[in-house]
Amino acid sequence: MGTGVGGETPPPPAAPPAPYGAFGDAPPWATAAAPAPQRPGRRFGAGAAAGLCLVLGVGLLGGAAAGRLLGGDPAAASSARDTAARAYADARTVWHSVPVDTLFPPVVTGRAAGPGGADRSWTRVGVAPDSDCAGAFDPALARALAPLGCARLLRATYADSTSSDVTTVGVVVTTADAASCAALRDHWNTQRLGSRRELMPRPVAFPGTLSAGFGPAQRASWTVRISGTLPFVVYAVSGFADARPVTDPQPAAAATAERATSVAAQAGLGHDAQGLADAVSRTFGDAVQAAADRSTLGARR
Question: Taking burial as the number of CB atoms within 10 A of a residue's CB, which of 11, 81, 208, 221 is the most buried?
Answer without folding.
Answer: 221
